[in-house]
Amino acid sequence: MTISGKNLVAGEWTGKVEGGFTAFDANTGEALLQSYADATEAEINEAIVSANEAFKTFGTLAPAQRAQFLRTIGEQIVALGDELVEIATTETGLPAMRIQGERGRTVGQLNLFADLLDSGEYEGVIDLADPQREPLPKPDTRLGYIPLGVVGVFAASNFPLAFSTAGGDTASALAAGCPVVMKAHAAHPGTAELVAQAILKAIEICQLPKGVFSLLQGKNYAIASQIVTHPLVKAVGFTGSERVGLILQQQINERPEPIPFYGELGSLNPQMIMANKVAQDGEVLAQGLVASLMMGQGQFCTSPGVWAIVEDDNYAAFEAAAAKAICEQPAGVMLTPKMAEGYIATVEAWKNSGATIVAKGKAADVAHHASAYLFSADLATFKNTDLLREEVFGSTALIVRCKDAAEQQEFISYIKGQLTGAIHAVEADLDATRQIAQLLVHKVGRLIYNQMPTGVEVCASMNHGGPFPASTDLRTTSVGSKAITRFQRPICYQNMPEELLPSLLK
């Protein structure tokens, strides 16, 4: 398929490509030849207005029709074949196997929502009338859910498929009946356009209004501001940095009509390492933590960034095993040169933060590659150093050395909200683990036992969210079947004639 470099606005490819921005070959660090248009104010407005017009039809479609649309998107993504894998690996530096797996997950998410729509998973609640009830008759009340309207979605840098153009936010919004205006990530615009072509094809096959989906390219920060402040946009899904997320949140709060902002803004994913686990399996655990850290060169939102451990007689062997594993890691490709620069600058700041370098991975040969690092600090240093309590987007982790189990519990009080937290323990640790779990559960969206945090299962019981800044609404998830509820609102119908009820409540 041909990459145009243009924006998809209500079924038409528009925009001035000449003089636009380019993506980078993540493997070589060189700019790619294809230029991409920055979406204009007029194009953004047209995309949102067209989406709002499409909502009048799309928002009332039967669940079976929405399900067919989602499945058709998945089929068209698969039909893109190797070209999608090739351009995604070029733009991100991620290996082909990772992209293939992410494509499968993306299609799986679409099919998950389709299956749940077909099975009636999202049906409402019916309380029939009771005219004989004393002292007052009970009316007929039926609780259903209706879509919010136009949803603005921002693609993630680190998941070019599963959290981007047709990723979880888009899939759940479309499943809810909401048209989507997607802001593509400038790190992988070609990947975004190919997936948008697949969505457009699905729109045509299913004979839906063209405004159901639009794709906006660009590096201009004004694009994001216009999306989140447009009066016809009724919700926003965002995955990105805490700094940008808070800017968008502030702009949304200043709207005459505030709207839901579902932002995923970062996570340290603390690893609570219990004493008897270290004594029994310390070296193996250290190697496993390093392997988890290195997935995606540390650019996973669930990367294990901070490890709290008691500095007892077994600690030295654990640290040595972790250091050895880090030293063996080759320097790796970051998603973009800018991200590599940011990672390197953060690591340099950590070197002057009071933390100690435990180990460094192999040196980078080129500027856009980054070396792995492992630091350590005592609890007092961690408590008093803001920088060490912030997410590092890359392959660096911090060991926090605690004097005893009481300090491990104290450590939890110093961390912000997290997507995940893991406890590594054996049966002999259970008494101490119980107290750790009781504290940690209030800081995380997913509590894990003896497994690594990297990897998110797409299923009904998954929660991918957590207290701020892990997400801006701790009651919601961006992964799994409950993600659809972010883009719906409850509506109660009282004493309505059946002819005026939605089909699911009849």
Number of helical stretches of at least 4 residues: 14
Shape: globular
Low-confidence stretches: none
Strand order across the biggest sheet?
A: 15-17-18-13-12-19-20
Superfamily at the CATH H level of the largest domain? Aldehyde Dehydrogenase, Chain A, domain 1
Distance between the termini: 45 Å
Using the CA coordinates, give the radius of gyration: 24 Å
In CATH terms, what is the fold-level topology of the largest domain?
A: Aldehyde Dehydrogenase, Chain A, domain 1
Largest sheet: 7 strands, mixed
GO molecular function, one term: oxidoreductase activity, acting on the aldehyde or oxo group of donors, NAD or NADP as acceptor
Protein name: Aldehyde dehydrogenase (NADP(+))
Keywords: Oxidoreductase
Structural description of this entry:
The chain has 14 helices and 21 strands. The protein has helices spanning 41-58, 63-79, 82-92, 96-119, 168-176, 189-205, 221-229, 242-253, 275-293, 315-327, 337-351, 379-384, 405-413, 430-440; strands spanning 7-9, 12-14, 21-24, 31-36, 125-127, 141-147, 150-154, 180-183, 213-216, 233-239, 261-264, 271-273, 306-310, 332-333, 356-360, 369-370, 373-378, 396-402, 418-424, 444-449, 488-494. Helix 9 (275-293) links the parallel strand 12 and strand 13. The chain is globular and about 75 Å long. The two termini are 45 Å apart. The model has no long low-confidence stretch (mean pLDDT 96).
Task: Briefly say what this structure is.
GO terms for molecular function: oxidoreductase activity, acting on the aldehyde or oxo group of donors, NAD or NADP as acceptor. Helix content is 38%, strand content 20%.
